[in-house]
Design a protein that fits this description.
The protein has 6 helices and 17 strands. α3 links the parallel β8 and β9. The radius of gyration is 19 Å and the shape is globular. By secondary structure, the protein is of the alpha+beta class. About 20% of the residues lie in helices and about 40% in strands. Strands 7, 10, 12, 13, 14 and 15 form a 6-stranded antiparallel β-sheet that branches.
Amino acid sequence: MQLNVHYATTYHYAEPTRRVIQLLKVTPHSFAGQTVLDWRIDMDCDAQLREGRDGYGNVTHMLYVNKPIEALTIAVAGRVLTEDKAGVVHGLPHDLPPPVFLRETALTAAGPALADLAQKVGGKDSPLDQLHRLAALLHDGMRFDTEATAVETAAEQAAAEGHGVCQDFAHMFIGVARQLGIPARYISGHLYRRDGAIDQPAAHAWAEGYVEHLGWTAFDPVNGISADDAYLRVACGLDYRDAAPVAGARSGGGDETMTVEVRVGRTQGPAQAQMQSQS
């Protein structure tokens, strides 16, 4: 399907800033099952944008604003063709060896709650079966709650409390998978909601686990499924901090408020439009 994304992050400062520096990871790659047709980043002020790539292969942009501002909007828009590959991710232009993603981080470190989940998932089944069971276990046993956690909430805390947002579900999945000896990584991106909810409060997050002889496979424990053509993959890392869409620093500005607006829609192909017009 063809997905259309409009994603805006707006900052308001209590007083003029002296300088703003932002690291953006908002631009997706093309790979098997995902083809970027066009993509652009716009700002509403005079700024410099420098493109690069980080150690995980993510496309990065450093944004520099060197004059006083009281507000900043970073707007991203693009069109991407996606195919349902049953979650299997092939053909990334840059990647790291899977064992790198066995590393524990502060956000994914396992304690008693994650160890208990690993015990429920573990067994003699194949790694792929274990990952499917893990995604289902989190989907069925954890409550999605947008008020429950913050950006710095660790997977262990979310698992112990039994609720969280998509970031927490991804961190729990990753922490348990690594406990089982399965490389796993955090994915940030966008989700086209088939319930018609085009306007969304934030970008989406899920996880990928590495399965020998199959490769990286994407799982969304919030929805209890493998990623399909409704998912647009943007960035990856060991946890949220490596794949955060926007991160940075500033001089001056006083108190800061931030708002995020996300719209993910789809464009119908000629055949789909014709079928609907005849119905």
